[in-house]
Amino acid sequence: MKIWVDADACPADIKEIIIKAAHKRGIETIFVSNKVISIPESPFISTIKVAQGMDVADQYIAEKAQDKDLVITQDIPLAAILVPRGIVVISTYGVLFTLDNIGERLSVRNFMQELRDNGVQTNGPKPFSNKDKQKFANTFDQQLVKLL
């Protein structure tokens, strides 16, 4: 089992939770980003810097993640690729993507993207809160326990 983190837009609080869990449980954790990110020195944690470009980090994670891995991402199209392959996917807001909800979430995401592409102004993501951090921590811990 590995933890893969789509690190380009991962909040610092979430990164901290993931790093603590990786140390505590001895789980290999890979932060994938198209920029340099700082992480503490650890035998369990590494970073992969991918080339600049749209969805390059997502493509890397999609190619490398395997059944029973855990992926942290806000990218719904990436989640839609991974979930059917048996990979556990959680958003940084603590949403567990499943076979039951990924189709609807992808449809809503695509609809909102189509609106934006046609010039309709939509609300961006809500600000990250302490409640979101707690929801992530709970979901993350539950899924780690199941996978381990």
Short structural summary:
It contains 5 helices and 6 strands. The chain is an alpha/beta fold and 148 residues long.
List low-confidence stretches.
Answer: none
Class computed from helices, strands and strand pairing: alpha/beta
What percent of residues adopt helix (DSSP H or I)? 40-55%
The strand order across the widest sheet is 3-2-1-4-5-6
Q: Report mean pLDDT, rounded to a whole number.
A: 91
Taking the sheet with the most strands, its summary is:
6 strands, mixed
Rg, Å, rounded: 15 Å
Distance between the termini: 8 Å
The counted number of beta strands is: 6
Number of domains: 1
- What is the CATH topology descriptor? Rossmann fold
DSSP strand content: 15-25%
Count of separate DSSP helical elements = 5
Structure characterization notes:
The structure is a single chain. About 45% of the residues lie in helices and about 15% in strands. The protein has one domain: Rossmann fold, CATH 3.40.50. It has five helices and six strands; from the N terminus they run βαββαβαββαα. With about 150 residues, the chain is α/β, with parallel strands linked by helices. The protein has a six-stranded mixed sheet with strand order 3-2-1-4-5-6, sandwiched between helices. It starts with a strand and ends with a helix. The protein has helices spanning about 10-25, 55-65, 75-80, 100-115, 130-145, and strands spanning about 1-5, 30-35, 45-50, 70, 90, 95. The longest helix has 18 residues, at about 130-145. α1 packs parallel to α5 and α3 (about 75-80) packs antiparallel against α4.
